[in-house]
Structures are given as C-alpha cells and as structure tokens.
Amino acid sequence: MSNFICFKAEWQNTDPDQGDIITAYLSEFPFTHFESEGNWLKAFADENDIAESEYEGIEEAVMDYCDRIEWSIVERENWNELWEKNFFDPLQVGDFYVRATFHPEAPEGTRAITIEPRMSFGTGHHATTRLMLTEMQTERAVFQGDGGCKVLDMGSGTGILAIAAEFLGATEVLGVEIDDWVVDNANDNLKINQTQHNTMVHGDVKALSTVADAYFDVVLANIHREVILADMAEYVRVLKPQHKLFLSGLQQADEALIVNHALGLQMKHLKTETIDGWLMILLEKIA
C-alpha cells in the first residue's frame, strides 16, 4: 500500500489570499487534500501519482508565491493518528453538523455527517464543500420529489455530498471517484452514516457510459476546473431537462469560462455563490 507525498509551502507576507493562490496552482496537479494554517500550506497526493521528476515543475508553478518549499512522505498507516492530532473542529453547515468519528456527538436538532478522513478531500471545511452543502440545503426541494430523486456525485471524495444528498431525501445516489483507496474510505463513511441508497464506484466519467440519457435528477461535481470542462457534456447528458447541476472546485477567475461552456451545452446559469474566492455555480438543463 502506497504512502502519501506532502508538499509544504511557506511564505512571509501577510496577504490573506496567498494560500488560496497557491492552492489554485497546486490544484492543477494530482493533490487530493490541502491543509493550511497561518503562513503555510500543505498539499497531499498519493506517492504513485507524482514522480520525483515532477517536483521541479510543481515548485516552479508556485515559487513566485513561496519563500520556502519542502517535500516529505507521510506513511499511510499513520494518517488517522495525524488527523486525530490536527483535525478540524466540528463544523455546522446549515442543518448539518460535520464531525469526525472521534468528535463528540452532534448537538440536538442537527443532523450529523460523520467523516473518517483518510486523505480524502471533503470534510466540509474547504470553501468548495461548504458552498455545495449550503446550496444543496437551499435547494432541498429538488432532493424531495414525489417520484424520488436520483443523484450523481462526481469526484465523491469522502462521500460527504453523497451522504448529504441522501439525508436531504435522495432515493438513489451514485458516487464516482477516480482513486481506489478513496472509494474504500467513502464506503466506510457510507456505513458509518448508515446510508441506504448510496452506491460508490471506482472510475471517472467513463463510468457513466452505461447510464441512460436524462437519468439523474441532480448532478453534483466538486472537482478541478479542467475535469469539469472536459466532462460537463456527459454530466448534462445524464441530467433530466429542467433539473440542476451543482459545480464547485472553482476559483473566481473560472466563472466566465465555466458558464460560457455550460451555455453552449444548453444549460441556464441560475446563480453563483462565493466564499474566500471559491465558487459554487448552479446551472439548469434547458432541454
């Protein structure tokens, strides 16, 4: 079983956007999780996904924004212990109370989403995940249709959005995740949360090749910009007309590009929400 590569960047200035800028550049590479505190940022990737020969190119991409860069290896078996020492505090997002397995139980009146993170993206703390969880609750009616609601969650990570979709009323949820070890983590989280209508599969957009046109009522995709651009046509194909596509993993500079691409696929731009320079774009299929 492979370990993780940790890329650490530090900077001296006090620009509050520095970490987001570095994260945006690093998002073009196979990093799956980011941590930041003060003036440093850590990015993690499976060691099989980044070769040492690629280190220099990654450093060049961000060197103008960093004063110090370090590389290290984090052993996979020590990951849970690392999270228990440094993991986020529980977080409330609307009606959802996102917690780790080692946190206290959710307060009365909230719905716990319990995540055991093992280097998977999606604990609710990154702005993109919070944006998606918030907008899903704003649009909760779409998950509660009389005839049931089928949801596709692309790039499912920990499964947090897939779990939230079921809790909001979805009767069928398909999560698709490209990393096999992340699928294992997501499946564990589905069990922890006692989901009944979730299925998680290992793959990419090709996993949709056997899905009928206009099958899903909702499509969720919290992925990198380039993946969204490459795969959006397939998301639209499997989405029912007059139904919604939720997109995130995007920066403010991506909005025009994403929206224009969506308009060319017969989608309507309903709204854009932002947190700390990150976007959630809500679209509707016209026909």
Through-space gap between termini: 46 Å
**Average pLDDT level:** 88
Number of domains: 2
Beta-strand residue fraction: 25-35%
CATH class of the largest domain: Alpha Beta
CATH names the topology of the largest domain as Rossmann fold
> If you compute it from the alpha carbons, what radius of gyration comes out, rounded to the nearest whole angstrom?
18 Å
Shape: globular
CATH superfamily membership of the largest domain:
Vaccinia Virus protein VP39
CATH architecture annotation of the largest domain: 3-Layer(aba) Sandwich
Structural class category: alpha/beta
**Total beta strands:** 14
Series of H and E elements:
EHEEHEHEEEHEHEHEEHEHEE
The biggest beta sheet, please?
A: 7 strands, mixed
Structure description:
The protein has 287 residues and is an alpha/beta fold. It has 2 domains: 4-74, Alpha-Beta Plaits; 119-285, 3-Layer(aba) Sandwich (Rossmann fold), CATH 3.40.50. Helices cover 29% and strands 32% of the residues. The strands form 3 sheets. Strands 10-9-8-11-12-14-13 form a 7-stranded mixed β-sheet, with helices on both faces. β5 and β6 (96-100) form a beta hairpin. α4 packs parallel to α5.
Layout of SSEs?
Elements: E1 4-10, H1 18-26, E2 33-37, E3 40-46, H2 55-62, E4 68-74, H3 79-86, E5 91-93, E6 96-100, E7 111-115, H4 127-138, E8 150-154, H5 160-168, E9 172-177, H6 180-192, E10 198-202, E11 216-222, H7 225-238, E12 239-251, H8 255-263, E13 267-275, E14 278-285
Helix pairs in contact: 4-5
